[in-house]
Amino acid sequence: MGKVGGLWNFSEDVGTDSSDGLPVHSPIYRNLMTNTPNDLVELPFTDYFKDEAKYVSWERYLEANNQLAEEYDLYKYIKFYHYIKSVKKLQRGFKLEIKNTSTNEEFSEEFDFVVVAAGRYNIPKWPKAENKLLENFAGRYFHSKDIKDTNLYVNDRVLCIGSGISALDISLLLHKAGAPNVVINSKLALFTKYCTHKWADNYSMVQSPIKAVDGKKIIFENGISEEFDTVIACTGYLCEYPFLEPKLRPENRTVAFPHLYDAIVHTKYPELTFVGAFYSFHPKFSSYGQGHYIANMLNKNLTNLPSEEEMEKSIEEWYNNLPKEISIIGVVDFHFNYYDHLQTFCPHKIVSKRHRKYTNHFIPFLLAGKHLEYEHKSLKDFDDS
């Protein structure tokens, strides 16, 4: 039997899966811990982490996913070891080319409705300008997806390029494990504004683009130059679906928000829907709500979708409403307004005002690199007023 949990299934392989020759899906590294408090990753009807530490390992998180599948008898609906090679639009419905990776059998099936729930963390996004310069780097240069154990680099001088949580998590692990020098190269204002981690002589941030590379020496535009043994591109992932034929692929005008109505429905082909394409502070909340939204479509409870033109207009309004200023409250409110919208399609309440307050309180700790020290608050400490 296969396993549910998607990217939470750790793999020792890099690039290609040794068991089936397909691309490795998981970006998990051996000593990864969740970076969101447990009471912000529970679904409305689960209580898996009630008596556990505020942050859990990837193994425990994966186990909870399997607990959920077993408790609700979901395995009978899942075909494991089936790889979707392509999805093409027919005059009516869609044709899927499928490979059974356990038997190597290839076949096709037709469906009236398709839900793409393949995640958004499997195709690496590389830093374009730095990529060209780092072709001549004399040390190791790779994407954070290919890290399998940060302990392998504790003797290296490491540069982490990135402006997000991966750069912070990986750099902190390396620094605490004793790496001789760790530097984050970040240019995102929101990250650098709140990142108030107590820097050390051998742990720092450079807020300047790379200008040149000479052997192992990296020269930044602000005049700083240092030698590194390893450079890690902690620059996130592309929300792309190469198995969809080109006309079915949603446009990505921003990395975070795909060109989909309600971040779910393809405007030209509404029988094609997506779960998890929207970058979310709380993926469990958004995915749960999106799942119920789609269930309502399939149950014919949601039959009054707007026209293609109206959906396109709604998407434009969505982009125009993206937070213009760099602020925690503005970004959190944008996400929670979306969760509130999804709640109208759910039998359970996904989030409440206390979730919003808790997130506003917690996120600065996360961006400051102090989330692992964040033990003094929990969801029950906030009210719904």
SSE arrangement:
Elements: H1 58-71, E1 82-89, E2 94-100, E3 105-111, E4 114-116, H2 128-133, E5 140-143, E6 157-161, H3 165-176, E7 181-185, H4 189-194, E8 203-206, E9 210-214, E10 217-220, E11 225-227, E12 230-233, E13 272-274, H5 283-298, H6 308-320, H7 328-343, H8 353-367
Parallel strand pairs: 4-13, 5-12, 6-7, 6-12, 7-8
Antiparallel strand pairs: 1-2, 2-3, 9-10, 10-11
- Largest sheet entry: 5 strands, parallel
Order of helices and strands: HEEEEHEEHEHEEEEEEHHHH
Number of helices: 8
Shape: globular
Q: Point out poorly predicted stretches.
A: none
The SS-based structural class is alpha/beta
Strand content: 15-25%
Termini separation comes to 46 Å
Our Rg estimate from Cα atoms comes to: 22 Å
Fraction of residues in H or I helices:
25-40%
In total, the number of strands is 13
Largest sheet, order of strands side by side? 5-12-6-7-8
Q: Round the mean pLDDT to the nearest integer and report it.
A: 88
